[in-house]
Amino acid sequence: MEIRQIDARYVAPTYRRNDIVLERGQGSRLYDETGKEYLDLGSGIAVNGLGMCNPAWVQAVQAQTAQLAHTSNLYYSEPCALLARALCERTGMERVFFSNSGAEANECAIKCARKYSYDRYGAGRGTVLSLRMSFHGRTIATLTATGQDAMHDGFDPLPGGFRYVPADDIEALRAENAGDVCAVICELVQGEGGVRALDPAYVRALRALCDERDWIWIADEVQTGNGRTGTLYAYQQYGVAPDVVTTAKGLGGGLPIGATMFNARTCGVLGAGAHGSTFGGNPIVCAGALAVLDQIDDGLLAQVRDKAAYIRDRLAACKGVRAISGMGLMIGIETDDASAKVRACAERGLLVLTAKDKLRLLPALNIPQADLERAMDILTEVLA
User: Fold this and answer.
1) What confidence tier does 1 reach under pLDDT thresholds 50, 70, 90?
2) Residues 124-140: what's their mean pLDDT?
3) Residue 148: predicted pLDDT
4) SS3 labels along 257-286
5) Distance, CA of 44 to CA of 308 (rounded, Å)
């Protein structure tokens, strides 16, 4: 029985897989079971931010695997402590809670916001506002926080304490003044919702409103973080800082990790016993994440911005492109029949993604220029 048949028989049918069995990869090149080569502009949906099998990441993970695989959070471990310090020093945040995914990081942020409000105002002030077309995860709480009605279908009863407002509409946000709100959660670039960046004026007004009403602002940087948009985190391009930042995906370099970062306002909210994770802060995962973070320096971020400009220039001159959205190397392409174009690209040896009715590009931050140029040759041919 071949892999496709085994998968169809034994794996829960929750994914619409492409008809490709990937076996190995190096950098931005992947290979299927026949040996066919693909240029990868998806990076495991923004996970393999430094490409496949990044040498420093592999070395760090292998070394830690041979030394200490798991301890539980009843004990200290060096990789966990060093990663927390590195994240705080790079962001100005104060403390970090480690988990295993973006959804878990967002769950932690929601708990923190509600506990912050409860400690100061008591019960009845626990509603979290999120934006229409947002995506925050698939646990029952983060699914409810996701502002897409179609994703809620079939999962009733959803938990209470969530409401939705339109993106970039500060007056709609101001109108949410019933006295039951504790927080606003938003992506700076809505990824699954169409690769749409929030307006800077809106984000600054959101920050001011949260200060005025003592709401916690949670920035969901699960997909936008770790260099993806041309800065370490996307909020750093908006001139204001959140109270809580969540991230995952590209931080682990291919291993599962979530991180919830707290500022001075929120860092003392969750004390001993208030939250936990069996595998959060795992030494192997944290060692890999440290190797990733060490490589996201000013030079790499400058390359991200340059490559993003190159892609946009190529797309702007391409027939079949109606509009381009996103930020950095998180790019949405408005075109006809995006799903058909994904298949056409794959036939030519190029892997791209979709987001709603758009094509979505999430190449490795360090994709070689020659690979990027070849990928864009294929993509523009398909788009035209």
Assistant:
1) low
2) 98
3) 97
4) CEEEEECCCCCCCCCCCCCCCCCCCCHHHH
5) 18
Chain centre distance of CA 163: 22
Closest by CA to 36, choosing from 44, 53, 47, 24, is 24
Rounded to whole angstroms, the Cα distance separating 80 from 62 reads 16
**125 within 8 A of 118, measured Cβ to Cβ:** yes
Verdict on whether the full-model pTM lies above 0.90: yes
**Cα-based distances in Å from 210 to 185, 207, 215, 360:** 11, 5, 4, 32
Residues shown for the chain: 384
Per-chain mean pLDDT for the chain? 97
pLDDT, one tens digit per residue, over 336-364 is 999 999 999 999 999 999 999 999 999 99
pLDDT mean over 163-180: 97
- Return all residues near 35 (Cβ < 8 A) that are at least 6 apart: none
Residue 14 burial (10 A CB sphere; 0-12, 13-18, 19+): exposed
Are 102 and 249 in contact by the 8 Å Cβ rule? The answer is yes
**Residue written as tokens 């990441």?**
57
Closest C-alpha to 365, from 267, 208, 232, 260: 232
Per-residue tokens: 109: 């942020």
Q: What angle do CA 278, 283, 288 make, to 5 degrees?
A: 120
| Strand arrangement of the beta sheet that strand 358-361 belongs to | 323-327, 330-334, 358-361, 353-355
Residue 300 confidence (pLDDT): 98
Output the CA torsion 133→136→141→144 (10° steps): 10
